[in-house]
Every structure is written in C-alpha cells, then in structure tokens.
Amino acid sequence: MNARPETLHRRLEWPSPEAATCEIRCGRGELSAIADRLAAAGLVAEGRLLLVCDPGAEAAIAEVERSLGEAGLGWRRIDVPAGESNKVQASVDRIVAEAIEWGIGRDTPLVAVGGGCVGDLAAFAASVLLRGVPLVLVPTTLMAMVDASIGGKTAINHRLADGSLGRNLVGSFHPARLVLGDPRSLATLPPREFRAGLAECVKHAMLDGEESLAFLEAHAGSLAALAGTPAEGDDGGLDRLLARSIAVKSRIVAEDPLERGSRRHLNLGHTYAHAIESLPQVPWRHGEAVSLGLVAAAAASVEAGWLDPAAPPRVAAMLDRLGLPTAWPGEAADGSRLRSLMRLDKKRSRGRLALVLLRGWGRPEVLADPPEAVVAAGWRAIGIRC
Ligand SMILES: NC(=O)c1ccc[n+]([C@@H]2O[C@H](COP(=O)([O-])OP(=O)(O)OC[C@H]3O[C@@H](n4cnc5c(N)ncnc54)[C@H](O)[C@@H]3O)[C@@H](O)[C@H]2O)c1
Predict the structure, then answer these.
(1) Are the beta carbons of 49 and 75 closer than 8 angstroms?
(2) Could you tell me which residues come within 8 angstroms of residue 330 by beta carbon, excluding any fewer than 6 positions away?
(3) Ligand 1 mean position, distance from CA 302 (Å)
(4) Which residue, among 41, 363, 3, 45, has the nearest Cα to 207 in the 3D structure?
(5) Which sign does the torsion angle of CA 212, 298, 274, 259 carry?
(6) Could you read off the pLDDT of 285-298 as tens digits, one per residue?
C-alpha cells in the first residue's frame, strides 16, 4: 500500500503595509515644486504619470500641470468631480479602463489632486490597478490635508439594496508614497468647506493636549476670518495649525497603522457624527457633524466621570468661534432614531457600541458598552432629547 503523501506546509512572510514609507510635505510653494518632489521620491523613472483630478480644484491642478510640463514629464488626466455619489465602483472602473488603455505600468505613479472624495477614490484605484501602483496625494481641501490624505485608508461607497449609499464600505490600506499640500490652494475653498476642515483640527487638538487647544483658542478669530479670504503673507496661524494637526494624525497613525488599537482614538466624536450623517435629508458636511460630535463626546466624558465639567463649554465656545455648529438648529431631531443609528456604526467593536472619550486633554480612551446615561448626556449637550 502506498504511503499517504505528506501534507505540504509552508509559511510565507509578506511585507506588511506598515513597512511602507510615506513622505508628507505641507508648505507654501509645494505644488509648484511637485516635479522635483516626485523625482526626489524616485517616482519619475517612467517620465510619466496618471493624474486623477477633482475639477473643483482647478487652480491647484493648473499649478501641478505647470510644474510637470516644465520638467518634461508626460501625463494622462482623468477628471472625477467630487461628491459621494461619484466615490463609487463605476468611477474606479473608468479610471482603471483609461489607465490600462493608456498602458500604465507597475511603476507609473497615480497622482490624485483634490479633496478627500477624489483622494479616497483614486487611492482605491491605485491599490487595485496592476495589484498596486505608487500613489501620490495632493490634498486641496483642509479636511484632506489634515486628515484624509494621511493614514493609508482608501475607500469607495457601496450602493445598498435599499438604494442608499453605504459610506466607505469598500476599501483597502494603500499608503501614499508622497503627500504634498500647499496652504495657498485653500484660498479658493468655499468658506463652509474650510470651516468643516477646522473641526478635524479641533479633534486633533483635543487628542493632543492643552497646548494645542490653547493654540487654537488663541488663533480662532484669525482662522475663522480666513474662511473664503486666506491672505498671502498673513496666515492667521493656518500654516502652524496645519503642521500641528498633520503631526498629531501622523503620530497616531504611526503608532497603529492598521487600526487595531490606539488609532481608534481618531474616532473621537465620530460615533455621534456618523449617526447624525446617517439621517436622511440632513444637510451637514462631515466636519459639521464632527463638530456636534465633539461637543457630545466631551459631555459624555463628563457624565462618565472622566472629564472636568468645564471642558464641554470650552470645546463648544471654540467651535462656535470657528463658525461651526454646536447645537441642533430648529426642530429637534428624533433622538431614539439617532440612538439606533449610533448602534449601527461600523466602528462598534465586536458588535458592541464603543465610544472614544477623554480622561483629560490629550488622554483619549475607548469606553466599550457605555452606560445609557453617558450616551444620552452627549445627545443632550447638542440639544437632542432621547
Ligand atoms: N481616507 C481617510 O482616512 C479619510 C478621512 C477623512 C475623510 N475622508 C473622506 O473625505 C471625503 C471628504 O473630503 P473633503 O471634505 O475634502 O470633501 P470633497 O472632496 O467632497 O471636497 C469638498 C468640495 O470642495 C471642492 N474643492 C476641493 N478642493 C478645492 C479647492 N482647492 N478650491 C475650491 N474648491 C475645492 C470639491 O470640488 C468639493 O466641491 C469623504 O468622502 C470622507 O469619507 C477620508
């Protein structure tokens, strides 16, 4: 009788996404230097690249194209207008089809110019094209500069059976090799979009500590005044705010790139914000919902006995000075609906609700299965009874 063949058993070690190096630069003049930056990062071997652009960021795109042209680089440009309904598989298919028809190679970088929508979409396309091509992000909104472009998360939305759009349900980790931001590109940003980005900066300051909060408080007036009218030469604290905020997000991501632990702290305020955003016909920008969520999280932290009662009014006063909402306007929303939407949040850990709360400025911690009273205190703080 033949002996049973031995079962093959091999273990392959794969390089982890944590090993990828991402260079982040943010400063005035970075966009006009993009060709040099690409060369320094070793991304011009082919002499050409794929540009995926949000046409809403036309001035920034023109600056990028000027730099590429002067350096003699070639490119193929694909425009995808911003908007959650464009951050979908059909847009990925279009990018992939054009890229392949153009003859993209494994070393051809995909450079995305625009806000977080086009950044997330282009990054996802870069992660699947030929099993991954080098990604360069040129964020042109405040939200994308301090948040979406840092951390390697790519995403598209998925149309659910009931016709609604499931946000960020499909995606991958594909860190950009290079992120280039230029505060000058924010000059054309609609004021509301600028303010929405400031909400994430407040979140980063709360996660960082007293000094960061004091910086924001000292500059809240001048930063709010920048919305729609950023002045050349007098940055009102914007450049330093960008540097601080990018440093906080980068530090937290570097500690836990794949979101297995401490990176979850970046969800401060977001469990409330996601529930608010899930309400149909609620016209909040993500940053505006985050603003409400931050006030709620601060109040919930007080109810948990973790934070000083003076903290929520301090957060609310700062957000208010930055022109962000801190209470539900007009007719109160359905509190019980918001509570159930909150329980659907995809960031629940092992099926349980988990809230990121603060034990002090710069001291976030996850509270799993928060008591009802803690959750309700957050909603109450923004004017919602449940
Ligand atoms: N990957 C991540 O880690 C991460 C983190 C946060 C947010 N996001 C995603 O980011 C998206 C939101 O990004 P956003 O807030 O940048 O919004 P956005 O990309 O929708 O841009 C907002 C608006 O600003 C316009 N715009 C962009 N740059 C401009 C400029 N320089 N001048 C004038 N107009 C300009 C756009 O055309 C759009 O109308 C969401 O889809 C969210 O899911 C991703």
Answers:
(1) yes
(2) none
(3) 32
(4) 363
(5) positive
(6) 999 999 999 999 99
